[in-house]
Design brief:
Blueprint: H1 7-11, H2 16-25, H3 34-41, H4 45-52, H5 62-81, H6 85-96, H7 100-107, H8 115-125, H9 132-135, H10 138-154, H11 160-167, H12 172-176, H13 183-197
Length: about 210
């Protein structure tokens, strides 16, 4: 019997080039945000942009990518929480039961954690894929995130909002420039979708 695949392992079986091709068929590659993708993958934004263009990232070792991604997650955590590095060092040292000196070196990307600590870091930062989040190649890391986006278009039943939009004629292009709509215009657009699925008189019931 073959070994069962974890969800993120199944996702990356399709190469990045094919994922980008299929996203392009849905006219979604032009709407991809490299900054958001960099945050989701803990990759440098310039690497994400290069991969989206079909290029190759700079070569790296497992140690380099693990250290860089832990450091990227740590910096993002500090930005998001407005905490100081010393606060994060204390939290990590307590959670992972290691010294603050060692925690600081790991968070700054100066040292490589062992496998058990890598698992603990995955839990601490709540990343998808466990330890593989840190060890995947840049291509596979981006591919994992992009395939999650692709699934919303190729398997809309898994996303109720996307399923309703597709069923009632609100196609992807309608919302592509939603950022340019006023809140009132966007509300009218979405209200139309909601009204289309309400039973007669359903919107007046209170």
């Amino acid at each position: 019997m073959g070994q069962a695949h974890r969800p993120w392992e199944r996702l990356v079986e399709q190469p990045l080039t094919e994922t980008l091709r299929r996203l392009s068929a849905h006219r979604e590659t032009e709407g991809l945000n490299s900054r958001e993708l960099a945050a989701q993958t803990a990759l440098p934004e310039d690497v994400v942009r290069e991969l989206l263009r079909g290029g190759n990232p700079p070569p790296d070792t497992i140690q380099q990518r693990v250290c860089a991604r832990i450091n990227a997650l740590a910096n993002a955590y500090l930005t998001r929480t407005n905490k100081k590095l010393s606060d994060l060092v204390s939290e990590v040292a307590d959670r992972l039961t290691i010294s603050e000196v060692w925690a600081r070196k790991l968070l700054k990307g100066e040292k490589m954690p062992n496998v058990p600590l890598l698992h603990d870091f995955a839990d601490f930062f709540d990343v998808e894929g466990g330890e593989t989040f840190f060890t995947m190649s840049a291509e596979d890391s981006l591919n994992r995130v992009l395939q999650s986006i692709l699934q919303k278009y190729e398997n809309p039943a898994s996303d109720p909002v996307q399923a309703l939009m597709k069923k009632y004629g609100v196609v992807n292009a309608d919302l592509r420039h939603a950022g340019s709509l006023t809140p009132e215009q966007l509300e009218v657009l979405l209200a139309g979708v909601i009204r289309s699925v309400l039973p007669p008189g359903g919107d007046s019931a209170r």
